[in-house]
Amino acid sequence: MKIIMLGAPGAGKGTQAKMLSERYGIPHISTGDIFRANIKNNTELGKKAKSYMDAGALVPDELVVDLVVDRIKNADCMKGFILDGFPRTIPQAEALDYALNNQNEKIDYAINVDVPDENIIERMSGRRACVGCGATYHVVYNPTKAEGVCDQCGQELILRDDDKPETVKKRLDVYHEQTQPLIDHYEKKGALFTVDGTQDIQVVFDTIVKKLG
Ligand code: ADP
Ligand code: AMP
Asked: Which of 83, 99, 163, 202 is most buried per CB count within 10 Å?
């Protein structure tokens, strides 16, 4: 099963992608996580991506497309994958379609997690990310057992720099301009499934699983 997650920054794509990955036994591939790991390890890719990310802009297509196209050729993607945060532009979607088409494959579901802008700022200011394993929580909606400490690996939680309100506003503008057109793109392909992402995390998950089977 080949799945992509669509939706505004903070809509809950990563939260659902992790749960779906466990449920269906297919890898969760987050381009944001890949860039953050590269920044942490001070790689060339990380150095190139950082300034764009800090500004709330998209990293250029040429830095992300080959990375994903190569990643989905790995053996662990044989049964499928969940792409989270990719594609984010029409050229990225076309490059993905082309790569899959060459192997007689296609995206089965584009899951659009729909959350209005007014809910996003609150979501993002309450999001906490683990510096160690990248797990994501929310101070109100998905709290850790012990405050400020990751349930999974025990390391410290932080507010991402790009989750500060001024950057979130910029990221939302970028989303509407460059990523929202993908909803139409996948609707035309008959792959779109939209879920109301303002519902409880478990309700959103159950709704998606009902559709996917
Ligand atoms: P995305 O991957 O789309 O940027 P996340 O999955 O990281 O978004 O979710 C953003 C924040 O909102 C996180 O703090 C997460 O715990 C919280 N969150 C996710 N889904 C829901 C939901 N259905 N209701 C309330 N909060 C949610
Ligand atoms: P995310 O963790 O998905 O919210 O991504 C964090 C940041 O990484 C984004 O604001 C972009 O700067 C960058 N990024 C992640 N995925 C992509 C992508 N597919 N194309 C361009 N930039 C991306």
From this structure: 83
User: One of 2, 13, 36, 128 is an active-site residue; which one?
Assistant: 13
Å from CA of 58 to ligand 2 middle: 6
Q: Distance, CA 64 to ligand 1 centroid (Å)?
A: 23
Whole-angstrom distance, CA of residue 159 vs CA of residue 7: 20
Q: Where are the alpha helices (DSSP H) in 25-145?
A: 31-40, 44-54, 61-71, 90-101, 117-126
Q: What is the pLDDT of residue 53?
A: 96
Q: What is the pLDDT of residue 134?
A: 87
- Could you tell me the pTM of the whole model? 0.96
Q: Write out residues in the chain with pLDDT < 70, as ranges.
A: none
What is the CATH superfamily name and number for domain 2-115+178-212? P-loop containing nucleotide triphosphate hydrolases (3.40.50.300)
